[in-house]
């Protein structure tokens, strides 16, 4: 099941489960649209995969299948991507 991580790995911006601003790769690395477009140019810095819009889980399913609370954040990524 898709993890729906709560924040951008690059800038730590909050990305709630219903966010249209979240992008992921096939390994579920998660980035906000600003970082994905401007810094990463649509390519995951972890695996080299394409970053695409993260699917949104229907609100009725979040109670039984909640989003992850695990934050993955690497502040060095933001400076190394510029």
Q: What is the secondary structure topology, with strand pairs?
A:
Layout: E1 22-24, E2 30-32, H1 33-39, E3 52-53, H2 59-62, H3 75-80
Antiparallel strand pairs: 1-2, 1-3
Protein name: DUF1272 domain-containing protein
Care to give the gist of this entry?
Helix content is 21%, strand content 10%. It has helices spanning 33-39, 59-62, 75-80, and strands spanning 22-24, 30-32, 52-53. It has a three-stranded antiparallel beta sheet with strand order 2-1-3.
CATH fold descriptor: Herpes Virus-1
Low-pLDDT sequence parts:
none
| Distance from first to last alpha carbon | 33 Å
Radius of gyration: 12 Å
**How much of the residues is beta strand, in percent?**
5-15%
| Number of structural units classed as domains | 1
Helix content range:
10-25%
Using the alpha-carbon principal axes, give the shape: globular
Major beta sheet summary: 3 strands, antiparallel
By DSSP, the count of extended strands is 3
Describe the strand arrangement of the main beta sheet, using strand numbers.
2-1-3
SSE order: EEHEHH
CATH level-two architecture: 2-Layer Sandwich
What is the typical, i.e. mean, pLDDT? 91
Total helices: the number is: 3
Structural class by SSE content: alpha+beta
Task: Specify the CATH class.
Answer: Alpha Beta
Organism: Caballeronia cordobensis
InterPro entries: DUF1272
Protein name: DUF1272 domain-containing protein
Keywords:
alpha+beta, 82 residues, three-stranded antiparallel sheet, DUF1272, Herpes Virus-1, DUF1272 domain-containing protein
């Amino acid at each position: 099941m898709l993890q729906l991580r709560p924040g951008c790995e690059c800038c730590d911006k909050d990305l709630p489960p219903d966010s249209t601003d979240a992008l992921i790769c096939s390994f579920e690395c998660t980035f906000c649209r600003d970082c994905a477009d401007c810094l990463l140019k649509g390519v995951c810095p972890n695996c080299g995969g394409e970053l695409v819009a993260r699917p949104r889980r229907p609100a009725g399913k979040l109670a039984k299948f909640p989003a992850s609370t695990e934050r993955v954040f690497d502040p060095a990524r933001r400076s190394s991507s510029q």
